Amino acid sequence: MNILFIGDIVGKIGRETVARVLPEIKRDHKIDLVIANAENSAHGAGITGDTIKELEEAGVNFFTTGDHAFDNKKHPGIFDEHDNIIRPANYSRRAPGRGYAVVTVKDKKILIISLIGRVFMSGNHECPFHKLDEILANTDLLDKKLSGIIIDIHAETTSEKINMGHYAAGRVSAVLGTHTHIMTADNKILSGGTAYITDAGMVGAAEESLGIAKEGTLKTFLTQIKQPHVIPEKGLAIFNSVLIVINSKNYQAKTIKPITKFINIK
């Protein structure tokens, strides 16, 4: 099974880049399932029904999120209204939505889990390591005869993400880091057939600061006065993703390959 995981989609330019680039990748690599982190898709802050619909029409099947999951206050019920969007599983149990879901692809069931890190991250979240154990011990999930398990670990530090990779190794198909918007070069297969990358990067403005206009972020550093985040809508855009090939008979990953494209959005 060929699964494409797309890094954090940032703003309108990110959504348009997905629409322009994804169809060709799906065709060329015979993609069975497309997962994307969409927490920055609504102008860099959360998600909306319209942005999700736009990305679905572009070919994305499922959406994970992270610390910006609930930034858009206009759509508080979106996580309960859509069964293909999840928020971090180690958020409060009273938070809207779910932290994991099972999707069916060609009669194969894939479990997708969203987790958020705690090191240098805002919020008082449950331990992501213990939460993973809790999810994997769920007998209802075990009864579904899963063909693959994909984790999005949305975290700041490399150390927390790589330790999640080692902790989950041999128990899941892939541990894929998000949040920093910079794709790392450490894609590999861990022991037990678990694909890993510290960060899958982003889709957005390529010549700015993590997808945000660099003029404002530079001024923040130079003056120590926080400036508004401005998301450019035109210019050179980057599309970061990873392709994971899974043996659905034992849900072990065979390969994990970065796929990066650049495109001018006018």
TrEMBL record:
The active site is at residue 68. Fe cation 2 binds at residues 39, 67, 154, 179. InterPro entries: Metallo-depent_PP-like (IPR029052), YmdB-like (IPR005235). Gene3D superfamilies: 3.60.21.10. SUPFAM superfamilies: Metallo-dependent phosphatases. Fe cation 1 binds at residues 8, 39-40, 181. Transmembrane segments: none annotated. One of its GO terms (molecular function) is metal ion binding. Keywords: Metal-binding. Signal peptide: none annotated. This is Metallophosphoesterase.
